[in-house]
C-alpha cells in the first residue's frame, strides 16, 4: 500500500466497515465537515490491522461485525498498534449490548448506525479532542450499571473471551474452527462452552444460539 503524504494540519480517517455503502456515506459526511481530510478504507478486521501497522491515523471509525475477526476482537490489537489514536465504534447493535465492553477495551466512543449525522459529527469532534463519547441515553444506562448490579443481562458478566466464544458458537462455527482462529486448544474451547452453558443456564448450542439472537448479540 502506498502511503499518502499529508500536510501538517490534515486529518487522516480510517473507515472500517464491511459494507461499501456505509463507508461511502461516512466518507461523504466527514469530507463535508473536514474538507482537507485524507481517508482510508478497510472491509475486514485484517485489512484494518494492516493499515494501522503501515501508517498512523488520527481517527478510526470501526464497525463491530465484519468477516473473520470482529471489530470487538481487534480493539486491543489496534490500541497496541496505535495507542494514541481514538477509536469510535459504530455498530448496528444496541448500545446496551456492546458499549460497555468496547469502552472497557479502549474505544473512545460508541454510537449506533441509527445515529443522526449531527450526533456522529459531535462524537467525532469530541474524540478527536481527546474526550470520550457516549449518547445521553447510554450515559444514563452506564450510571445505573455502576450504581447497581440488579437486572443486568447475564452476558454482561461474561469475560471478554467467554463473550467472544459465545458469539462464535452462535454464528454456527465449529469447536475446531473457533480453536484455530483464537489459537487455543479444542479442549480449552470446550471448557469455555461448558462455562457458557452453566452461566447462561442452557443445555445445548441450540439454546446458546437462541439466547444470542434474543439478546441481539448476533445479526
Any overview of this molecule?
This protein is an alpha/beta fold and about 220 residues long. Helices cover about 50% and strands about 10% of the residues. The protein has 10 helices and 5 strands, in the order E-H-E-H-E-H-E-H-E-H-H-H-H-H-H. The mean pLDDT is about 85.
Short account of what is shown:
51% of the residues lie in helices and 11% in strands. With 219 residues, it is α/β, with parallel strands linked by helices.
Keywords summarizing the entry:
219 residues, alpha/beta, 10 helices, 5 strands, globular
Layout of strands and helices, then pairs:
Layout: E1 12-16, H1 20-33, E2 38-42, H2 45-54, E3 59-63, H3 71-81, E4 87-91, H4 95-104, E5 109-112, H5 117-128, H6 136-147, H7 160-170, H8 175-182, H9 186-199, H10 205-214
Parallel strand pairs: 1-2, 1-3, 3-4, 4-5
* H-E string: EHEHEHEHEHHHHHH
Task: Give the overall shape, derived from the CA principal axes.
Answer: globular
Task: Tell me the strand order in the biggest sheet.
Answer: 2-1-3-4-5
Question: Count the strands?
Answer: 5
Report the sheet with the most strands, covering strand number, pairing sense and barrel closure: 5 strands, parallel
Rg over CA atoms, rounded to whole Å, is: 18 Å
Please state the average pLDDT score.
Answer: 85
Please give the oligomerization state of what you see.
single chain
Cα distance spanning the termini: 32 Å
Number of helices: 10
Poorly predicted runs are none
Strand content: 5-15%
Amino acid at each position: 500500500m502506498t502511503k499518502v503524504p499529508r500536510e501538517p494540519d490534515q486529518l487522516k480517517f480510517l473507515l472500517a466497515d464491511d459494507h461499501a455503502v456505509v463507508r461511502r456515506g461516512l466518507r461523504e459526511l466527514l469530507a463535508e465537515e473536514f474538507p482537507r481530510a485524507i481517508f482510508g478504507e478497510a472491509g475486514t478486521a485484517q485489512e484494518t490491522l494492516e493499515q494501522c501497522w503501515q501508517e498512523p491515523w488520527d481517527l478510526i471509525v470501526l464497525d463491530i461485525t465484519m468477516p473473520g475477526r470482529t471489530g470487538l476482537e481487534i480493539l486491543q490489537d489496534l490500541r497496541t498498534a496505535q495507542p494514541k489514536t481514538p477509536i469510535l465504534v459504530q455498530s448496528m447493535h444496541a448500545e446496551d449490548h456492546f458499549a460497555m465492553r468496547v469502552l472497557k477495551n479502549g474505544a473512545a466512543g460508541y454510537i449506533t448506525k441509527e445515529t443522526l449525522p449531527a450526533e456522529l459529527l459531535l462524537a467525532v469532534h469530541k474524540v478527536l479532542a481527546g474526550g470520550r463519547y457516549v449518547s445521553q441515553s447510554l450515559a444514563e444506562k452506564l450510571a445505573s450499571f455502576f450504581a447497581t448490579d440488579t437486572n443486568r443481562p447475564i452476558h454482561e458478566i461474561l469475560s471478554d473471551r467467554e463473550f467472544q466464544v459465545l458469539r462464535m458458537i452462535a454464528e454456527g462455527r465449529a469447536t475446531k474452527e473457533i480453536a484455530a482462529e483464537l489459537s487455543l486448544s479444542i479442549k480449552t474451547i470446550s471448557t469455555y462452552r461448558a462455562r457458557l452453558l452453566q452461566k447462561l443456564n442452557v443445555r445445548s448450542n441450540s439454546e446458546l444460539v437462541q439466547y444470542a439472537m434474543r439478546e441481539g448479540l448476533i445479526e
